[in-house]
Amino acid sequence: MDKRVLLIEDEPNIIEAIRFILARDGWRVDTHADGTTAFDRVAETRPDIVILDVMLPGRSGFDILRDIRADAGLGGLPVLMLTAKGQVKDRDLAERMGASRFMAKPFSNTEVLASVRELTGA
Amino acid sequence: MPRSALTGTRIRERRTMIGMRQADLARLAGISPSYLNLIEHNRRRIGGKLLVELARNLGVEASALTEGAGAALIETLREAAAGHGEAEADLPRLEEFAGRFPGWAGLIAERHRRVRELERTVEMLTDRMTHDPFLSASLHEVISAVTAIRSTAAILADTEDIDPDWQRRFHRNLSDDSRRLAEGAQALVAYLDEGTEDPGVQSSPQEEVEAFLRARDWHMPELERSLPPDPARIVAEARELTSGPARELALAHLKRYRRDAELMPLQRFSEAARGAALDPGALAQAFGVDPGAAFRRLAALPEDRAGGSVGLVACDGSGTLTFRKPVEGFSLPRFGAACPLWPLYQALSRPMAPVRAVVELGGATPQRFLTYAICQPVLAAGFDGPQVLEAAMLILPEGTVALPRMAAQPVGTSCRICPRRGCVARREPSILADGF
Q: Which positions fall inside the HTH cro/C1-type domain (chain B) (predicted)?
C-alpha cells in the first residue's frame, strides 16, 4: 500500500511542486490549505507523515502541531515543519513543541524528499 | 533646598546694567565685597533674606534673579549627568560650572539633547524592523515566491522524462512566481527608500503635531468660522507636518477641534468659561457635552479669552501621553512616563469619576496648579469592545484661576528629575536627590 503524506500549506505553486516530487517517489499526497480545519483533516486522513507550514491562514502551524502532539492517537506522528522565517526563535519553538524536523524556506527538493523518507523509515 | 540656577550671574548682570559698583552693592546689602564677588560668580549659594536684600537694592523682584532660561540649561545638564558617576559627584558644582563656562555648558546640553534624539531614532528603527507588519508581510511574500521558484525550477531541470502537460504547467507557475517575486522585491525597495527620506524618523509624529499646534498657540481661528475650510487642506498646507503619520494625527485632531467648536461656539463659550471660572464640569453641563470635550475647548481658547494660560495633557489606557499642551512651571515629559501621582492617572484608574485637585510641583519655588481630570471610554468599537479609554487632565496655573482652599497634593514631572526624595510612588531613583 502507498505511503501517505498530508501537506498543509497555502501557496498553490509550492503545493504543486512538492506534490509532484513526492508523487514521483511513490507517495500518495493529500493537501490542505486552511489552518482552522487542518487538525480535523489530520485526524480524518491519518497520514504517515505531515508536512506543516507555520504561516497558515486562520491558525498558526504551531497551534496545529500542539494539537497533534496532545492527541493520544496522533501523538507519535512525524511532523516536518516548514517556515518562511528561518529564525532561531522559530526553530527552538518548533523543537520544544515536538516537531520531528524543521525546514526553512526556500528548501531544496532533495532535502524535502530525504527528510520525508527518513522520518517515515521508508 | 535652594536652587539658584545662575542667580549669581543674574545679580552681576543687573548690577553692571544699572552701573553700580560691587563694593557699593555689598555695603548696601551688609556683606563684604569679596563675599558678593563669590556670589556673583556662582561660588556661593544664595537665598532667603540676603537675596531679597540684594534684589531690593538692584530694584528688581527676587524672583527675577532666581528664575529664567538658565533653569532649563541646568535641568538638561542634570539629566546629562545621570548615571555618569564622576559627573554626578560634581553635581553640587553644576551651577558654578554653567556660570563660569556657559559655552561649554551649552555644548554639553546640546550634545545630550542630540544623543537623546538619536537614541530615540534608533529605537524607532529597531521597532520598525522587528514589528513592522508591512515589512514582515513583504518578506514572507518574497520568500514564498522564491521557494516555489526554486522547487519548480529544480523539477524542470532534474526530471528528464517530464510529461509535456506538467512541463507547461510548471513553466507557467515559474512565470507567475517570478512576476510575484519582482513585484514583492520592488515593493520592498520602494518601502525602504521611503524610509530613508521620511523626516518622521527625526522626531515622532506626535511631536510634529505639537510643533504645528504650538506655532498656532493651540488655537485655530479658521476652524471657528461658520464656514470653515476643510481640515485636510489645513493639514496639507502645514509646513510642520512632514510625515504621513503626523498628518493623520493632525487631521484627527482638527476634525475633533471643529466638532468641539460647533458644539461650543467661541464667543458664547469664552463668556461662559470666564463666568464659571473655567470649571469644565459646569461648562460641560451648560453646553450639553462630555467633560473631555470641555477640557479640549478650554485648552483651545486664546489666552486673553481664557484669562491666562491653560494646559492639557491626555493619555490612553496604557498611561502613554497622547497629547501635551504644557504650561509654564508644569513641564510634561517628552519621552517615557510621567509622575504616577498626577490626577490624570488617578482618573485613569477610576473611569468616569471626575477628579479635581490642587497639585504642587517640587522645585526652587514650588508652584501650584488647579487640575481637573477625567477618564472616559472612547467606544471606538462600540459596546462589544475592546474597551478603549482616554484620560485627560486640565492644568490651570495660579495666575489663570484662583486656587480653591484645599490641601495641595505634591507631584512631580518624571521620577528621574524629581527632587522628592521619600516619594512612595517613586519608580526609579532621582538624579537630583544627591545633587544637593
A: 11-65
Q: Does A26 touch chain B (CB under 8 A)?
A: no
For the record, the C-alpha cell of B419 comes out as 527632587
Whole-angstrom Cα distance, residue B346 to residue B57?
46
| Nearest CA-CA distance, residue A7 and chain B, Å | 15
Question: Along chain B (436 residues), what's the average pLDDT of each consecutive run of 10 residues?
Answer: 60 86 91 90 82 86 69 80 86 82 88 86 72 72 91 91 91 92 84 56 75 91 91 89 88 95 94 94 95 95 92 92 88 79 95 94 79 91 86 93 90 80 82 46
Q: Output the pTM of the full model.
A: 0.53
* pLDDT (tens digit per residue) in B34-50: 999 988 888 887 877 88
| Residue to substitute from A7, A9, A13, A51, interface B, most B β-carbons within 10 A | A13
Q: Report the distance separating Cα B345 and Cα B330, nearest Å.
A: 16
**Least CB–CB distance from A106: residue in B147, B159, B166:** B147
Residues 95-124 on B with a CB inside 8 Å of A are: none
How, if at all, do strands A49-53 and A3-8 pair? parallel
Tell me which DSSP letter residue B44 carries: S
Cα separations in angstroms, A59 against A32, A37, A63, B140: 13, 9, 7, 16
Phi-psi region of B342 (alpha: psi -120 to 50; beta: other; left: phi over 0): beta
Task: In whole angstroms, give the CA distance from residue B335 to residue B340.
Answer: 15
Please tell me if residue A113 touches chain B, with a CB cutoff of 8 Å. no
Option in A17, A55, A85 nearest B151 (CB): A17
> Domains in chain A, ordered, with CATH?
3-108 (3.40.50.2300)
Q: Is residue A23 within 8 angstroms of chain B, CB to CB?
A: no
Interface membership of B137 toward A (CB under 8 Å): no
Q: Quick check: B147 and A21 CB within 8 A? A: no
Please check whether residue A60 touches B, CB under 8 A. Answer: no
Residues 6+ apart with CB under 8 A from B311: B299, B325, B326, B327, B330, B332, B369, B394, B395, B396, B397
SS3 A97: coil
